[in-house]
Design goal:
Number of helices: 9
Number of strands: 7
Shape: elongated
Order of helices and strands: HHHHEEEHEHEHEHEH
Strand order of the largest sheet: 5-4-1-6-7
Structural class: alpha/beta
């Protein structure tokens, strides 16, 4: 009986120690995940602030850098919710819904990247009748970095295909010294492209208008290539199909590697907007 009593005491002691250790480990893990979640959110927030400042510094002429600041604020807010335990206190259904929305967004982004890659290295075709260079920011100092990549790619193509005519398309923005078409034509002239091979389309303010207005300058049935940056080729060709340029091909120019994350995010949001507009219309 004494041995049995000792055995029962020993068994109870083991279970007691197990229960204490289990709950100690459970709450320890909760603290660990809470700390990790807060640290990850704050790190993402800091990166977004830094990257947004860098995008603003290049003077792209758009306000898209504000998206990075918005992401920074959202990430910091989530980190604060996690740190104060508010996130964990939310009803499970709300957290599951948030996880589902986030997961759907990530999945769509991965699918989008797969489609984006189809135009990333597009080289077009030889001896096209026309190429259209899509406009972008022009400053007093000349084309922006994004536009210069497009123009350099167009100049290379025109040198290799001497019978191709180039259409440069773009109106004058509120902070631009001239129309984008004029600025692009001037740049191509400095690259040795003859003026008679350059047509200017000076009214377009969107990619859709670039293609619609440029189409009017070409005879029906002309073969055409669209020169734009690699991150933009996929969506540009989507819009080209809408504008009746079913056989248009992409000619991909490069872009500065450091800013590609910004470019891709911008295209991702633009693609969502494009798809929504298609559904609504």
């Amino acid at each position: 009986m004494e041995l049995l009593g000792k055995s029962k005491t020993y068994t109870i002691g083991i279970w007691y120690a197990f229960i204490i250790e289990f709950f100690h480990g459970y709450y320890g893990r909760r603290r660990l995940w809470k700390t990790m979640g807060t640290a990850i959110c704050m790190t993402i927030s800091g990166f977004c602030i830094f990257y947004g400042i860098m995008i603003r510094a290049i003077g792209s002429g758009t306000l898209f850098f504000l998206v990075w600041f918005a992401l920074a604020a959202g990430s910091a807010g989530l980190g604060l919710l996690i740190h104060r335990g508010i996130w964990a206190a939310l009803p499970g259904e709300i957290r599951i819904l948030c996880y589902a929305i986030l997961g759907a967004g990530v999945l769509f982004f991965l699918v989008f990247l797969a489609f984006l890659s189809t135009g990333w290295w597009a080289a077009g075709a030889e001896n096209l009748d026309y190429i259209i260079v899509l406009g972008a920011q022009i400053s007093e100092n000349g084309p922006s970095a994004v536009l210069q990549y497009r123009l350099d790619r167009a100049a290379d193509y025109l040198e290799q295909n001497p019978d191709t005519v180039c259409i440069v398309s773009g109106a004058q923005g509120r902070n631009e010294p001239c129309t984008e078409a004029e600025g692009m034509a001037d740049y191509l002239l400095t690259k040795g492209i003859p003026a008679e091979r350059i047509l200017q389309e000076r009214e377009a303010r969107t990619t859709a208008e670039n293609l619609a207005y440029s189409r009017k300058l070409m005879p029906e049935g002309s073969s055409v290539g669209i020169v734009t940056n690699n991150f933009h080729v996929f969506r540009a060709l989507q819009i080209a199909r809408e504008q009746g340029l079913e056989d248009a091909v992409g000619i991909a120019a490069g872009a500065k590697p450091f800013y590609q994350l910004n470019n891709i995010l911008r295209e991702y949001l633009a693609e969502i907007k494009y798809l929504i507009s298609r559904i609504v219309s």
